[in-house]
Predict the structure.
Amino acid sequence: MGRYATIAGTGRYVPERVLTNADLDEMLGEPVGEWLVENVGIEERHVMADTETTSDMAVVASRQALARAGISAAELDLIIVATDTPDYISPATASVVQAKLGARDAGTYDINCACAAWVTGLDAAGKYIATDSDYDHILLVGAYGMTRFVDWTDKYTCTLFADGAGAVVLKAGDEPGVLAGGLLASGEYHNALGIYTGGTSLPATLEVIRAQGKPRVQFVRKFPATFNTEHWPPLVRKVLAKAGLGLDDVALFLFTQLNLRTIEATMATLDQPMSKTHWIMDKWGYTGSACIPMALDDALEQRTLQRGDYVVFCASGGGLAMAAAVARWTLG
């Protein structure tokens, strides 16, 4: 009998504060809202409170996922936090989440490959459970507090980024769940989009802060506008082939939630209807490493996944890092 990782529960956290496109029009002193809706699909975004941290958001989403999975924090064997906006440079935010949940027996680590981190973690967690009997329950949470690093005068970033968290609990089972995954990267674009101060390359010294301001997310140089639409389809096809599946076998495709037009173009390239995907950037903005588990949780409230349905997850982020995975739905 085989051993597989299955998704046992999902959860999310959306901060209370809402920032609409009209709010940004006023803040920036120029109209950006109409362009955002037409070209990106974002109408509003949610922003974490001044008193909230990345780990706080992760914990709320995690508790919901644990409750739905019927698993206590004490039963967790591993906590993986996917984030590039950690509570601290060191130690890992996953350790903070472990302490706040009271998951004393769980190992911890963070994954930072920007917005591809959660899908990367899904691939890793699936392999842990499938190959090592020490891992029966894994909490995988994407948490994103990028508005802490936004320059609110920069219309190229403050219009996109938002905050939130999404989580899944994976458990060991004897029927197929997480089936296959794949990773790619185009490291030549590592200096195109990111937060470039605060690390060893450019420490946040007084001199650096005086010259460049506090650490902030920046588009430093351009990368191809068609990057995702060129790279997502072959990556999706590759992981489906590894699982012995075709495109028409998939019930739900979930992509990085940065741009609805990119998702539309990708689904057209794959010759799949938009009814087989789901998006959340219109109401929650771009939530980076949290966006795909948040989209999954939201999709489950609006549609029914049947036991045996296949779900594809495909993400990309700064670096440029990419990840895809396919899972068989075992709930319901």
